[in-house]
Amino acid sequence: MSVLIDTYGRTHRNLRVSLTDRCSLRCTYCMPHDFAAWLPSEDLLTTDELLLIIDVAVSQGIDEVRLTGGEPLLRPDIVEIVERIAGLPNAPRLTLTTNGIRLPDLAAPLAKAGLNRINVSLDTLSRERFKTLTYRDRFDDVIRGLQAATHAGLFPVKVNSVLLKDVNDDEAPALLQWALENNYSLRFIEQMPLDAGGIWDRTTLITADEIYASLSQHYALTPVDGRGSAPAEEFYINGTKATVGIIGSVTRPFCGACDRIRLTSDGQLRSCLFSITETDVRTVLRDTSKSTANKREEIAARFTKTVFEKLPGHGINDPSFIAPPRPMSAIGG
Ligand SMILES: C[S@@+](CC[C@H](N)C(=O)[O-])C[C@H]1O[C@@H](n2cnc3c(N)ncnc32)[C@H](O)[C@@H]1O
User: Fold this and answer.
1) pLDDT in tens, 140-185
2) Domains of the chain: residue spans and CATH
3) Three-state SS for 84?
4) pTM (2 d.p.)
5) Which of 20, 77, 81, 126 is 20 to 30 A away from residue 321, measured at CA?
């Protein structure tokens, strides 16, 4: 088996696969509510194409695949996709990030198909704020989705929250209390400059330090050792085994331990959320002059190239930083 090691010695084992750039919510920090610049549907990878790429990636040492988007549960054949990935020889550990809206129907079939774990995004416990933040009145669906995930045995159900100044930045302790009561594993994510509307503003960023300070007023937090390549800094809560995570992507970058590569829904490999270059694998897949063996070889070479060209860090804090042309929804969070 070959291994995807970059020039800084980082071994890549985690592939984030975006299944679509479309979403059923319009989170303000992700895309404008009237966003319409969708990828052409003929550019989206078919399920067979996805499976071939993932199989090649597994042969190069990828052992965890996270399905994301856009909203991955909008993909009509999502259960089949999970089943086929879980059925691959040397199947990777399979996780999924979702807004949760379709989970009441899909949590049990996904668990049965072989999904190992799930992350659900929820930024507020207020139905009204949810509407303001997402431009959709779907708070109750997300709550039902979380319950369905628990009932389906997708344990531990992880919840991702982004805090925005003067919108929901007063909710960190309440979100944590709610997560503890419901046995969800909560992680706060710093807002990153990845929105299609260009609204990110460093001066209004709710930082990892501020989140920690807000939680510390109500909970005793003790750092958990052994973070490895995980994006979140984890803390034990009140001396128990329960934990909360803080992902300080902007103010406490963790690029030195990054083990992630991304595949967009239109077949472009990216070495970082913030890459401004991509490596195309879709045209390799659609080249009718190539045999499957040739395609596999070429795709493997393009994974190697992507990793080889990976920069040491995301550069958000460099004066020369340029945000990537794709928004988060079209990269895959
Ligand atoms: C892009 S979404 C895709 C998956 C799915 N639709 C969901 O809601 O989880 C994945 C995660 O990225 C987060 N996200 C989106 N834009 C972000 C930004 N600008 N900064 C930080 N996190 C962001 C979302 O809150 C969500 O937790």
Assistant:
1) 999 999 999 999 999 999 999 999 999 999 999 999 999 999 999 9
2) 14-331 (3.20.20.70)
3) helix
4) 0.97
5) 20
